[in-house]
Amino acid sequence: MDSQIYGLLFLLLIFTSSAAALSSNHHHHHPTTTPKHTPSSTTPSTAINSNSVLVALLDSHYTELAEYVEKALLLQTLEAAVTRHNITIFAPKNEALERDLDPEFKRFLLEPGNIRSLQTLLLHHIIPTRLASTQLPNSASASTFHKTLANHHVNLFDLAKVIRPDDVVRPDGVIHGIETLLIPRSVQEEFNRRRNLRSISAVFPESSPVVDPRTHRLKAPAPAAPAGSPPALPIFDAMAPGPSLAPAPAPGPGGPHGHFDGEAQVKDFIQTLLHYGGYNELADILVNLTSLATEMGRLVSEGYVLTVLAPNDEAMGKLTTEQLSEPGAPEQIIYYHLIPEYQTEESMYNAVRRFGKVSYDTLRVPMKVTAEEADGSVKFGEGDQAAYLYDPDIYTDGRISVQGIDSVLFPVEETPSTPVSTPPPAAAKKTVTTPHRGKLMEVACSMLGAFGQGCR
User: Which range, of 96-100, 375-379, 419-423, averages the lowest pLDDT?
Assistant: First the structure.
């Protein structure tokens, strides 16, 4: 009996000691395990508030812009921007992204390999600061530059027309509706470069074989001209015929299988002028008032290069009605601003720095335009009709170069030279010359004189 009691006590002692050991072990490890499950140890959440301007954009009537943002995979970038600071979004209307956008440019943006260009285009419409409609400038003197999320600077005064100011207002930003799409210069140049590379890769057409009439064998084909080589004939022979009969146009690739798509390149530079701002009058003359845009496109398709000295709208506004009303006057004015060479700001400035004064041929034959250095820039023309290089390299694609100037150029009129009055020739004096007599005649006369008869 005593042995059973001692056995129960021994078992009870073992049980209590093991329970105490387990409880002490649990209290020893509890502080090290709990921090792993506490919410404070996790990274803070970057969830966007439902009242955010980004959510409002995705749910707004700007459906085309919201779709482009999703295709460009910009949601994370915009969420991070909204958490750091307020933003201002200039949202183009749906028609600007759907109906008014060039289909070829739209395909370029939506290609998977061009996602960086699409992201740059969309981020160019967002400014990392809050700007209400009252802070937008309404005059050129109050224009301000702001840095966009694409690391570009945009001038708010040259911005597209704001048609819906303060359309969406939220605590972290505001959305203004604008009329057209804003295309940064880098995206436009990348699009032009891709298009030119695609057109140059076309196949050059080959003519039929020629048989030598003497040997009745095929003539050896002439070596093919390398792609991009200048045409054999000068550009003046390839221009459209005027009132008089002109030479035949120069043979060139032309057509859809040619090396260059001149019409597309001219269209690109005219669209660049419109997006750049301040050159609408020149674009209107090229497209509507004359057919020069079509002729320039044909010349570029045939392999020629052009440099356009583009007067801005302020300069074109100074032209009088008499200067534009004469038949062919707009064409002659523009021809004097077209140089059949490819010149950039750097090449022209280096030329005038090296040679002092340079003369460039123009399509207004035989007029030339002179250029010289003035105040660290390039000055064209002479006297009161001089123009300065105002907006350099507006458009440069290797075939067409557009340089903005601040005045319309006119050729220096040739002053008729006054004839020098020469005295009338003096009247020739009439001199009577005695006939020259020979030696034999003199001897005969002397003999007759001896007989009393003289020679008559």
Answer: 419-423
Tokens encoding 147: 């840095």
Q: Cα dist. 357→350, 375, 378, 380 in Å?
A: 11, 14, 10, 10
User: Nearest-CA neighbor of 168 among 49, 58, 48, 84?
Assistant: 58
Helices vs. strands in the chain: H and E counts, helices first:
17, 15
Domain 253-405 indexed as CATH 2.30.38.10:
no
Q: How far apart are CA 277 and CA 436, in angstroms?
A: 92
Cα distances from 220 to residues 204, 209, 217, in angstroms, run 18, 9, 9
pTM given for the model: 0.44
d(CA 135, CA 350): 43
List the chain domain ranges.
53-182, 253-405
Phi and psi at residue 74, in whole multiples of 5°?
-105, 5
Break the chain down into helix, strand, coil percent, rounded to 5: 40, 15, 40
Work out the angle between the directed axes of helices 75-84 and 63-71 (0-180°, nearest 10): 100
Question: pLDDT tens digit string along 341-376?
Answer: 999 999 999 999 998 899 999 998 889 999 999 888
Q: How far apart are CA 416 and CA 423, in angstroms?
A: 21
Q: Residue type at 309?
A: L
Q: Is 264 helix (H, G, I), strand (E, B) or coil?
A: helix
> Which residues partner with 388 through β-bridges?
379
Query: How would CATH label the architecture of 53-182?
Result: Roll (2.30)
* CA gap 299, 242 in Å, rounded: 16
